[in-house]
Structure formats: structure tokens, C-alpha cells
Amino acid sequence: MTLIFGVFLLILLVIVALAIVRSEDLFAAVMLSGIFSLLMAVNFFLLDAADVALTEAAVGAGVATVLFLGALALTGKEEARHTVSPGGRWLALGVSFATASLLFYASLENPHIGDGSAPVHQHVAPWYLANTLPLIDIPNVVTAVLGSFRGFDTLGEVFVVFTAGIGVMSILGVRHSLVELSGAELDARQRSLRHHLIPRIVGRGMVPLIMLFALYVQFHGEYSPGGGFQAGAIAAAAIILYSLLEGDDRGRELLPEWLLRLMVAGGALLYGGVGLACVLLGGNFLDYSVLATVPSAGQHLGLLLIELGVGITVTGVLISVFHAFARRASR
Amino acid sequence: MAILAYFNYWVFAVLLVIGLYAVIAKTNLVKQLIGLSIFQGAVFLLYISMNKVEGGTAPIFLNGNTERIFSNPLPQVLILTAIVVGIATTALGLAVVVRIREEYGSVEEDDIKAQDVGS
Amino acid sequence: MSIEDHLPALQIVVPLLLAPVVTLLRVRSLPWAASTATSALTFVLAIALAGQVATDGALSYAVGGWQPPYGIELAIDQFSVLLLLIISGASTVALVFGKASLDREIGEERAPLFFAAWLLVLAALCGMVTTGDAFNLFVFLEISSLASYVLIAAGPDRRALMATHRYIILGTLGATFYLIGVGLIYMMTGTLNLADMALRIGEVSELRPVLVAAGFITMGLALKAAMFPVHAWMPNAYAFAPHAVSVFLAACATKAALYVLIRFDFVVFLPHLAEHAAQVSAFFIPLAVVAFLVGSTVAVFERNLKRMLGYSSVAQIGYILLGVALLTPLALTGAIVHLFNHALIKGALFMAVVCIAHRTGSVQLPAIAGCARAMPLTMAAFVVAGLSMIGVPLTVGFVSKWYLIQACLEFGVPGYFLAAALLLSSLLAVVYVWKVVEAAYFKPRPEEAPELCEAPPMILASLWLVTLANLWFGIDSSLPLGLARAASMTLLGEAP
Fold first, then answer.
1. Based on the structure, what is the number of domains in chain C?
2. A272 — contact with chain C (CB < 8 Å)?
3. B106–chain A nearest CA distance, Å
4. ipTM
5. What range(s) does the Na+/H+ antiporter MnhB subunit-related protein domain occupy (chain A) (predicted)?
6. Is residue B44 domain-resident?
């Protein structure tokens, strides 16, 4: 039953992808890519990847959609009629056909899906499953691998987010050939939602709930799917919603720009600082075991701190990016 | 069900080239970025498809139960990172497109090329 | 454990963690000063690591204390040390050299963000050449790319934005191809650690996913390395980036991708995939030849000096690729030493062009007419670096060409043709270097053109430092050659 459901979802994914590419209305294309991400997330869930499903839903359907809509508001919603260059089409068809044939050719000797004797299930991964409880002592193996066994990757991931944050601020920070809206004008645009009673009341009730959920995801990641990244995305969503409902100025009062910058830098520094603390205490970089007298307690402390670092940076970056897009408006 | 044993990998290939086609063939810069995110999304499917074990469950030891069959945690960890990389690329790409629109008044690649030849 | 044992990690972590700190510095030139100091410190760390590798041989560092293949390993040998020296050296010189031009191009408000992105590129490139884990490599590859997009987009001309967009698209395609390749290999071997992969790939080397993976990884990294014919993003990205960024990225960014390609090919694929050697040669040798002939020819007709140097880089990457594809110790040594030498050559040339642009305000060929009289030291440096690129004796360019041509000649008659093509490309280099020299020395300065004077002392000093390095390592090339020889021996699996 799950199998058939999975196949059905996959076929749906292909149809949605085709619709995205065919659609000349960019607004529709963006909405469809939100659906694409949700379908993808359901698929991941069927394939036992709960953490990934949660992230794909939050990022692909949530953050990405908001970013695309923000950009479309500034660039226009329609694709031009001559959407495909004739030369480009043949090149694209050629490259796509070649790539697809290569992958089909390869796939016939892939291990079967779900085959427990495939190499990926025989080497490295069993070690993680066997050693997470004795060495780290938390139930979620994904969190253990993410935060500790491959903690260096996750440090890199935080810096990817950090780079994107400072990148968007740097690129959209210039005031070239453009009038930035004054506070009052901006207010007038942003405040519009305040006059809508239902979103306001429902929204006001939701903001604290979303925030609470973010905290739960942040601190419960060791036991269930979740962690700093997803929590950061959810917390940012709560604050962005607050800014939308109450006007950008109130949003800024809540989190002024200097504080956002401090969050963006501080979370990444917290993560790296934990790594350096391990070095000072005599371990290797990111070896949390030396943080406490009992190694597994040190691992717990390390994971808690780095997840917090991830959460802070992600929240800060997402809100900053939202502000960077929202503050810009064409003449 | 020999066909279904590879079905995910085929869908991965199809999604990948749909994205690739959009990236190369489309002249609208926003559409290229949308194509790029489909392209990246397809790769997530490749990795997550290999983490499944028949009869397995998500790799979380609920109530200390370690006896069940668990799916592979490693591809999941990798894809968590890859998803973040994808959204970071999208954010930067969109910021650049917004600036292009301000400078050129268009987000169609051929319009922009024509303007640059003129200048 | 003393602090020296942590050098492999610190090499990456120091610039990485200073990046967030720099974003918080809001005082005038403090971000620049902090970045330059960090970059210099990274260079010192690289020298210290080089010393360690020279005495103890290759190093391995287990991040998080988890042994490979379960944890992420940093693996450092002579080859990575050579790249670390190039990367941190290029960054430091470009920052010192570029202060004046960056002050003008970036503006005070954006400076903290810009310099943070710079440090991220530096840290991520160091990470790319030291990590021993295929996926960790992807993470660093992406950090370096994302941060370079930010640097290039800061260029003052609006065409910088289109160049960035193109780079984002092609760079992401490249990185994703790499990721697909790594995924397929992981599927067949169950491991992400490169050394472990090399051990386990032999058992499955006949299977299609592995062969296809080799293709995807090669293609992805070729895109990142701006290899012909997928170099389209590179000339414009370098031409419209802020000047100092062109110097930095031209000297080392594509090199890091080439390094990864060489490492993957020689460590993972070549010893274990039966057909791979023949495929590499059959595929890369023609591409390399076309690359340097086409690259040099386009450079001859290009009137924008920075784009000219960009196309010249396409050709130079072709030389390196040729050395790699010949698969002999001599050729590989030539290729690796050219990685180092080309960084010096292109660094010096870009710096000279930037000096001229600093005074004339333009990088177009007509604008530099007659500038040699007012800027004799700058133009002299350009001439020396140009001679080095052509491959005149007593310069570094000669050393690498000498090795490459010798390596070609080992192959008998087909080798003669390769050597001839190489010489032809060098002749074309004579033509485009001459075009600049002719304009600068022999064309009169137009009447209405503004008065010129020599570039500021600090800029000139760093330009000449690199130019003299071109001569120094041309006369005594034992340091880069020693590292390159050791590296090629390790890569080819022979005892050093």
C-alpha cells in the first residue's frame, strides 16, 4: 500500500515539475514549486527520513516560497512570450537527453531500493546505529551523526547560511539608482494587514504558538526529528508573521538591526567557539567529549550548544533576508 | 516488482533533467532559478532513496528500543546539509536577479544581452 | 596535545571564525585590517604546516575525535600544502595590494560584509584542499562558491551582476553534478572518506554507477575549474569583479577545483577503474589542446584587458590539464608546478593591469596608450610577468613549460604534435602580451587624456613582490618543484 502510494506521489512530482517548467505565469510556477516541495517531503517521510521531510517542508515549501514571492514582487510576475531561445532549446534537449540516458544506464545496476544488503547499509552506517547510544547517549541517530560524528559538515552548513545572509545583505544593501522607501511610506504599505480583522486576530494567536513550537523543535531534536535548523526556520516564520501583521516598524522594534547582525554572527561564532573550547580542553576540534567529566555528558552539552548556535544564526539570517527583500521597492 | 526496485532512481533522473532543461533553455532569470531548485531537489531524492531499508523505520530509538530494523541515517544527514545549501543558493540568486532588474529593467536574458551590446 | 597538532583544523577554522567577527566591525578600515591580518596569519599557519609535512610526511587529523571513515578526516600532504601556500599567499597579497581600489569600489557601509565574504572564500578554499571527505568537500566547495558570488557581485559595473548570475547557475550545476557523482559512489561503496573509497571501489569498479559517477564528478569539477568548453562563466566573472577580487580568484579559485579533480582522479579512480586511464587521456588531451589554442586566440582579439587575461587563464588551465592527462610522473610534476607558477604569473599580470586601471580608470586597450612613460615600474612588471607567461628562460613560466614539453616528447611522434601545439599557443601569448606592450610603450598618449603618475607605493611594492617571485622561483625552483615532485609521486602511487 505504501509502495503504491509512493509511486503515485513520484508520478505526481514529475507532473508538477513539468507544470512548473511549462507555466508562463511565474506566480503559478512559484506556488507549484511549493507543492513540489511538499510532495517531496511526503516522499521523504515514506522513505523513513523524518528529519529531512520536516526540513524540506519548512525550507522548500516555506522559506523558498516566501523568497520567490518577495523577489517576484520586485521583478514582475510574467515570463516574456519568447521564453525559450531556439538555440538554447536544442542545447538543453541534448544535454538533458544525454544526462538522463547516462543515469538510466547507471540505474540498472544500482542496488534495489529497500535492499538491506546494499553497501550503504553494510559499511559506516551500522557503526553509527551501534555507537550512538553508547558514545553519545541520545535516541535520534540523525542528530548524533549531524551534530557530532559529522559535526564539521554542520559547522560548514551554518557557514553556508551565514554566507547567504551576509551575501543578500551585501548585494541588496546598495542604494544604487533607487529610492529606498522612507519609514512612513513603508509603514503604509506594510500596515495594510492591520486593517484585516481576521488575519490579525488569528495571527496574533498564532505567533506565540509558533514560537513555542520552535522552542520545542529546538530542544527536543535529540529525541525526535528536529533541531536548530528547523527551529530557526520556524522561529523566523513567527517573527516575520509578526512583522507582517503589526507593520515592519514594530518588527524592527522587536529585533533591531544591530541585534539581528549579532545573531547572524553570534550563532556561527558559538558553534565555532564550542569547537575551539574542545581544543583548549585537550581534545580535537569539535570533540565534545572533553567538555564534561563524563564523555557522554560532554556530548550532550556540545550538541545543545551547537544546535543553539545553528538556531540563532538561522533565525537571524532568515529575518535579515526577509527585511532586505521587503525594504526594497521599485520606483 | 523488479520495475519498482529502480523507480525512484528513474524519477530522480527525470526530475533532474526537467530542472536542467529549464536552467539551460529558459531566458527568464527567475525561471532559471526555479529550474535550478528542481534540479537540486532531484538529487535529494537520489540520496534519500538509498537510505530506505525494507521493513525499516526512521533511525530514532524510541523508548530505548534498539532491536528494530532502522533505515540509514547518513544520507539523511547529508541531505539536510544539501537542502540548506540549496536555499542559500536560491536566496543569493534571487538577490542578484532583483538587482539585475533594477539596473536593466528586465529579467529576460536576451533583453539584457542586447542592452550590454549597445552600451 | 600541543597547538601544533591542531594546525590542520586551525588552518580552516581561523579564517572561518574571523568572518563573523569582521561583520561586526563597523569602524572605517578595521574590516580590511582584520581580514589582512587573518589572511597573513593563515599564510603563517600554512608555512608551519609545510614544515610539519616536510619533517613528518603526510598528516591526518580526525575532526571531533572520530576516526575515519566514521568521522571527517583532514588529510594533508605535499600537494595540499602547495595549494595552501598558493591560496593564503594570494589572499594576503591581494588584500594588501587591493586596499586602495577596494576602498573605492566597495564603500564603507558594505565593507564588513564584503571582507567577511573574502575570509569565507579563503577558509573554504583551504578546507577544499585539506579535507579527506568527499561530502565535506562539497560543503566547502559551496561555501567558497557562495562567498565568491558575493565578492563578484560587488563589482562596480552592472555587468558584474549578469556575470554573477551566470556563475551562480553554472557553479551550482557543477557542484550538483559533483554531488550526484559522490552519491553514486557512496551508493556502491558505503563510504564518503576518500582514502576508504579508494580501498573499496576496486570491488565494484566494473559496475555502471561507478563509471557514471566518475563522469559526473569530472564534469562537475570541470565546470568549477572553468575547463574548456565549460569555461563560459569565468572571463566575465573575473573581468567585472572588483579588481582585488580578480587578482585573488584568478590566482587560486579554479586551482582548488583542479586540485580536487586531480586528487579524485589519481587517488580514487585511476588505480581501480580499468578503463579510466585510457578515458582520461582520450578525453582530456584533445580538450586541453583545443583549450589552449582557442583560449589564446580569443585573448589575442580581446580588447578588455581583464577579459584578455581571463581567456589566457582558459589556455593556462589547458596546459595543466595536458600535464594531468599524459599520466606520466614528469608531466604530472609539470602540471602541478604550473598550478603554482600560473598563480604567480596571473597574479602579477592582473595586478599590473589593476595598477593601470587605478590611474587611467579603464581596462580597455585604447585607454592605456602611452601609459608606460608615466608608469614605468608598473609596465616593467607587466613585461616581466608577460615574459614569464610566454615561458622565457629565468622565469617560472619557463620551468613549467620545460617540464611539459619534455613530458610530451617522451611520447614520440604524437608527442611532437602536442609540443608543437604548446609552442604555437605560447606564440599566441607573445602576440597578446605584445599588443599591450605596444600600446603602452609605442603609442602616444592622446592629447586630451588625463595626466598619469606611478601607482601608490604600497600597491607597487606588492606588485613587484609577486613579479620578483616570478624571477626568483624561475631561477631557483627547488621549493615548488620539490613539492610538486613529491606530490606527483604520491599521486601515482610510487615511493617518493
1. 1
2. yes
3. 8
4. 0.95
5. 198-319
6. yes
